[in-house]
TrEMBL record:
<feature type="domain" description="Bacterial bifunctional deaminase-reductase C-terminal">
    <location>
        <begin position="3"/>
        <end position="186"/>
    </location>
</feature>
<protein>
    <submittedName>
        <fullName>Deaminase</fullName>
    </submittedName>
</protein>
<dbReference type="InterPro" id="IPR002734">
    <property type="entry name" value="RibDG_C"/>
</dbReference>
<dbReference type="GO" id="GO:0008703">
    <property type="term" value="F:5-amino-6-(5-phosphoribosylamino)uracil reductase activity"/>
</dbReference>
<dbReference type="InterPro" id="IPR024072">
    <property type="entry name" value="DHFR-like_dom_sf"/>
</dbReference>
<dbReference type="InterPro" id="IPR050765">
    <property type="entry name" value="Riboflavin_Biosynth_HTPR"/>
</dbReference>
<dbReference type="Pfam" id="PF01872">
    <property type="entry name" value="RibD_C"/>
</dbReference>
<dbReference type="GO" id="GO:0009231">
    <property type="term" value="P:riboflavin biosynthetic process"/>
</dbReference>
Amino acid sequence: MSTVFVSMSMSLDGYIAGPNARPGNPLGDGGERIHTWMYETATFRERLRFGTGGETGPDDDIVRHTFDRIGANIMGRRMFDEGEVAWPEEAPFGTPVFVVTNHAREPWVRKGGTTFFFVTDGIESALAQAKAAAGDKDVRISGGADVVRQYLSAGLVDELDIDLAPVLLGAGNRLFEGVTGDVRLRTEGRVAHLKYRVAK
Ligand SMILES: NC(=O)c1ccc[n+]([C@@H]2O[C@H](COP(=O)([O-])OP(=O)(O)OC[C@H]3O[C@@H](n4cnc5c(N)ncnc54)[C@H](OP(=O)(O)O)[C@@H]3O)[C@@H](O)[C@H]2O)c1
């Protein structure tokens, strides 16, 4: 059965983007630090057409496994707006992408299997369309925070994957700010034990 999952990189203080995020300033001021770990991986570099090279190993395995399991993506219009001007012509998804928006638009077909569909009748409709498109593969709620919060609050997410970067941003777009409803999370063990050394 298809799983609906969120997979996002987040700063230790809970931000998925810094302040002033907009097309031309993706992830906001300082926000690229949240994603540095991924930019270094071979799989991400290949997907984003950054060139050859990049690291293999556990981080790369996670990025590759995440891409491989996805049959369809869902995103909010602000994430799309940043990506529209930044992604390569062969957009890095290779699946249908359902953009939740109030602005109707014809589908946007890119090379390499990515087509963006603009869904104006809400998150449940976008999810139904994504599940139908994904078949046996999984549906990723790709971001940004607004859309993820809505899916979490509506109880429509099965799995939440957070890549927690050792970064304190101090300001920006907080992923869990305003999540409503009784969202209960389970993990192996009762708590994640994290220990950091503070750079001087
Ligand atoms: N750290 C990470 O892993 C990660 C991953 C992805 C994205 N991001 C970052 O996330 C940020 C974007 O997140 P965000 O929270 O600002 O916005 P978002 O979730 O990407 O998009 C929000 C927009 O989507 C539309 N929308 C949302 N819900 C809707 C609904 N139910 N019906 C109709 N339209 C709806 C609205 O736009 P309209 O009304 O204008 O249509 C709304 O303003 C970006 O800075 C991006 O770089 C970070």
